[in-house]
Each structure stands twice: as structure tokens, then as C-alpha cells.
Amino acid sequence: MPALDNFWAVIPAGGAGTRLWPLSRRSSPKFLHDLSGSGQSLLQDTWTRLAPLAGDRFLVVTGRAHQHEVREQLPAVGPDGVLAEPSPRDSMAAIGLAAALLERADPDAVMGSFAADHVIRDDDAFGESVRLAVGAARDGWLVTLGIDPTFPSSAFGYIHLGDDLAGHPGAYAVREFVEKPSTATAETYLATGDYRWNAGMFVVRPAVLLDLLAEGDAEFAATLREIAQDVSRLDELWPRLPKIALDHAVAEPAASAGRVVVVPASFGWDDVGDFDSLAALLADVDANPDAHGPRVLGDASLVRSVDSTGLVVPRSGRVVAVVGLDDIVVVDTPDALLVTTRAHAQQVKQVVTGLQQDDRGDLT
Amino acid sequence: MPALDNFWAVIPAGGAGTRLWPLSRRSSPKFLHDLSGSGQSLLQDTWTRLAPLAGDRFLVVTGRAHQHEVREQLPAVGPDGVLAEPSPRDSMAAIGLAAALLERADPDAVMGSFAADHVIRDDDAFGESVRLAVGAARDGWLVTLGIDPTFPSSAFGYIHLGDDLAGHPGAYAVREFVEKPSTATAETYLATGDYRWNAGMFVVRPAVLLDLLAEGDAEFAATLREIAQDVSRLDELWPRLPKIALDHAVAEPAASAGRVVVVPASFGWDDVGDFDSLAALLADVDANPDAHGPRVLGDASLVRSVDSTGLVVPRSGRVVAVVGLDDIVVVDTPDALLVTTRAHAQQVKQVVTGLQQDDRGDLT
User: In whole angstroms, what is the distance from residue A240 CA to residue A286 CA?
Assistant: First the structure.
């Protein structure tokens, strides 16, 4: 299949991945790491998945601290394809900047925004969903991909599907975006069959996105367009931009106004939010899931286990022995070691917060 | 209190401490380490405890690989006080060699043999017990110290007490030594009040020990005395010595013959056999046992814990974070990391065996 005409892949590459400490750090966030066992980083996986659709039309938006490593990891993108934010200002500013630049660069552009740190199992199915979404986006819709939920997660927001979208088989109106529900509420969502996970994937014409933003915050959209007109003013204007997520700034109000459509998709998606989901992911992709012992992300010859299951990440070169522990998580790096369980994976954040409070932010 | 006349402290310093891997190694066994949190090694603790009783009369018997470090750790003992075994031949050969040398050096010697890797909490009470034992040993008895059992352990042998020893208040005849019992049998022992733990502590005149040995194995005793007569023959004669524990070679048969007495003692004893007992030991000595978090052997500032208990040994300089784990054991060394639980502490041996089988004996 050829690349999609005028389709631009936008990759916001931000976030520290605090719950994946000490593997993920502020200085080396999770998108720079191989968490899927693919042999390349999540960022490189994202590029690999999008290159057949976008050709050489990429814009990666990342923090200044990471721009060098992003360029090293993505030589094919080229220096102009990597935008460095002066400071983190959440997803609306990052994706909005890309939209403003593309609006000027290519009047026929359709952009698709996909986070740098998600895992997708079926790249072909992903590509099919994006093609559908691009078709609807060309007609002026803000299109989101809605992931088939595989369990009643309370960790993700949901998209409530409405009617079929005329002229675009496979696409549906969005009734509303709903915030992370309780597990019980999520169960009722799954029972209806009308809800999908919101993975923050948007396909849209840049001008449409900015015009939708302007309806709620005209100055925000105008400032983004000013920057695009004269990028030498980036440092001056950037601090004026509100810190807000694209979901809140655009997607939710636009859905209420009937301007958003969704392409339901099932290509095996995970945001690898914590070590529990990482362990599940590696168990899924493991060639031999019945094998004894914990899953290993890295050099399995370093891991010695006796009567144990879970996840071991040996990243310091040392031997790691695990004895008599189920669903254990051991992450061994050169300057810090984490031991927890899959069930307590969310609490890892507390360690990072504690280190920062105790002037050990150097380790985070 | 002055030192005891002609009392010699014999310290067999051997054993790899396999169940304390990776803290204890063949190349660096547990007696060379600070496991009690005292600030000095178990070997140095043993010297400190015995010096008030023995003055400068020490014989430490250790492996050739460790003689250098033993001498460094015990400068007060002097080079002649450290005997290097050509090869490990179990406790009868090691302690018997010391006995043969002392028999020649000091006709009035009484020797007390105490392992280099045990922890004793009350050094004064220990000293009192040894004084009692020395009195009985001067009268020709093989005297053992019998530890008040604090729980029905299946990990120790027991000493069955008999009648009072006339002329030596506080000493009793030994009916028999019994091998490690089941927990149920141990419970019946404790209920009678007539059983003590066998900690392998013996006080005896050297000639008495060798003569008792000769009753069962005349050649063994004769060979030890030949070595003492001409120590230049050590390498030649040593390999002829049987590999047998002193308990089996002398103590058990002598008890059957009514030649052994016991001084019951309660001074807080532990052989620190595994990480479970090490964790219990550190919980006991902790100044603030109600404190949250795991016990730490080493620099507590390296350990970050959230909702966890157990034992952390941070020995690599790295930060160790433990989240949501009860009775966890984490031992962090520069080349190997162990994660287990107190309940599985015995299985650590399997890791060591596995490493040796897989040509990673360098780590053991």
C-alpha cells in the first residue's frame, strides 16, 4: 500500500513515565526504551508503524532535554521533523504547535497524532484504521480511534459511540468522551458494546483542529498561529500557552457539538502505564507463555529464578536471583533497584515522589 | 574479671554460608561480614567476646584462602594464632589440630571452641557460662554449652540433660545428643524442659579431647599429634584425616559413655543460618522495633520503602526501593542481587547450586 497523500504523522513524545521508575526517568522517559521486547524503543516502534502511512512526513514534538536522543533514534525523520518544546505545556500546546506549522506548510494536510510510548500489536490493522480515519478527516471531522476494550479498565477514559457516519463505513458519531470510570461503571459500558477506550489518537485537518480550539480559546489558537508564522518567537510566546490536555481543550467540547467521529479499532493496544501492564504485555507476546519463571525484559541469562513468576528487568549487567515470589517485579538498573509486585505497581509513583522530596531527584 | 588461667580460645572459621548468598560467598564467607550490625565482622565479634576470658591465647583455624583476611581482621591474635588448613576437612580435623598443638604448648591448657560465625547477644552471660564450663573441663570432662531453646526449631540438634554434676553447680550430665528433630518432636522436647540446643560449643582439656577421639579412631588422633610434633608435615599428613564433624567423632560416643557434661546457658544465641534468622536477629536488636519498613543491614539512607517489611541489605551503593511487600528479603551486592522472602530463605541454596552447575561458580 502506498503512503497516504498529504498525511502527516505527529508524535508527541513527552511524559516521564513515573510509574515505570527506575526504568523510565525524567532524563530518559519510557518512549526512549525498548519495553516491548521488539529490539527498538517505543518511539522507534511508533515511527516504524507510521512510516508506511506517512512516508517522510513526520513531526515529533518533544522536550528540549530529549531532542538530541530523539534525533539519534530517528535519523530518517531529519532535524526539521523534531520540534523541541521550550517547556512542558501539556498535549494541546504540543499538538497545536504541530497543527499550526502544518497548516502553513501544506494546505491539504491531514495530521494524525499518536503518542510515542504506546504499544500496538497489529501494525496492519492499525494502518487500516488510520486510513479510514484520514478519509473522514478530509471531510472536516475531528476523528479519533476508539480501542475495543478487552476488560473493564478504570485507568482509561471511554468514548461513547453514536450513529453511523454517512459516507464513511466503519466510522461513527461520538456522543461524548467520558472520564475514567469506576470498574463497576466500566462493566456497564462494556455490556452495551457502545464504548471504546480513548487512547488519545486523533486524525484531523490542522485548520479544523485550530478552529475548534479557537471556539473555546481564541487567544490560544491565535498564539499558536503566531508562532508558526515566525518560529523565532517560539521562546517568547510559548510560556503564554495554557497547560491543558487536547481532550479537554478540544475533543470534549467538539463532541458535545457533534463535530467528532470515531473509528472503532482492535489492533491490540497498551499504554504500558505501569509494570503490571508491562508484565501482561510481555506475557502476551512471549513465544512460550507456559514457560516457568518470570518474564524477562532484557538478557534472560542474567536471571535465575526458583518457584517465581512476574517480571524481571535486568539492566545493570548483574545476576538477579528471585526465589519463591509470585507476580514479583524486579527492575535492576545501575543506580537504582525497584522490588514490588504487579498488584502494587501503581504505588511506584510514591517512591519517585519521596526521592524528589528528599533531594534525590537525580535518581528520578 | 581477670582472664581464665591457661584458657585458650579456639575459633574454627570455616563454612561458606551458602544460604546467605550473595552476601556470603566461598571467597568471602559470612564470618568475615558484619551481620549483626555491630560495626565489625562476626569473627571480630567472636574475638571481642572471648578476649576477656582468654587474654591473648587464641587459635583461629581457617582455610588458606581466608588466612590473610582473618589476620587483617584480628591483628591482636598475631600470625602464630592463625592456622591455615591445607583443605577443608570438617570440624574434627580443624579443632583436633588446635587441640594437638595446645597439648604440647601448654600442659595445663583448657580449650574452648566457638564458631566464628555465631551471634551472641549477652557477652557477660556468655562469659559466666564459659567460666563454669572451664571449671568442669579442668576435672577432665568434655563440656558443652547447651542453649535454652526459644522455639521448637527443627534446624538445630538438641542436648538431652541428665543429673546434676556433683561439685559443679550449674553443670549437668548429658544423656545424649539428638539430631535435628521434626518440629513436632522439638515441641515435646521443649515441654520436658530437659533439652537444650547444641550450638557446637565445647570446652575441654586438649588431651581429653584427643584421647576421646583415639577411643573411636586411634589413627586420627595419632596423626593429629604427629602434625603437632612437626608442623612441617602438615601438608603431607592433613589429607589422611577423615572428614567428620566433632559431634559424630567424639561428642556423641562420649555422651553415650557418660563422659560429657553440659552447662545450660541463655545468652541469646543465633547461628545466622539464613536470611530469615538474620531478619529476626536484626528485628531483636533494633533500637526501635516498631519502626515502619524493613530492617536494613547497612546504610539505611539507601533504602526507600512503601508498605513493606522484611530485610534489605544494600551493599552496592545503589538506592533500593521496596513497594508493597511483606517479609521480603532483598540483598543487593555489586555483582549479584537476591530477592526472596523470609519463608523461602532456605531455598537460596538452590540458586547457588544452579550457578555452580551453569559455570557461574565465580558468583558463589
Answer: 47
Residues from chain A that touch B339, judged by Cβ atoms under 8 A, are: 320-323, 325, 328, 330, 339
Q: Which residues of chain A make contact with B324, given a CB cutoff of 8 A?
A: 340-341, 343-344, 347
> What does DSSP say about strands B260-265 and B172-178: parallel, antiparallel, or unpaired?
antiparallel
All residues of chain A having their beta carbon less than 8 Å from the beta carbon of residue B360 are 319
ipTM: 0.86
Which residue in A324, A332, A338 is closest to B347 by CB distance?
A324
Domain spans of chain B? 7-270, 289-363
Grid coordinates of A80: 526539521
Written as nine digits, the cell of A223 is 498564539
Residues in chain B whose Cβ is within 8 Å of chain A:
22, 304, 306-307, 318-325, 328, 330, 332, 334-341, 343-344, 347-348, 350-351, 354-355, 360, 363
d(CA A277, CA A295): 12
Q: How far is A271 from chain B (nearest CA, A)?
A: 22
pLDDT in tens, A70-121: 999 999 998 899 999 999 999 999 999 999 999 999 999 999 999 999 999 9
CATH number of the domain located at residue range(s) A7-270 in this protein: 3.90.550.10
The C-alpha atoms of residue A332 and residue A299 are separated, in whole angstroms, by 12
pTM value is 0.87
CA angle at A352 for the pair A351 and A356, rounded to the nearest 5°: 115
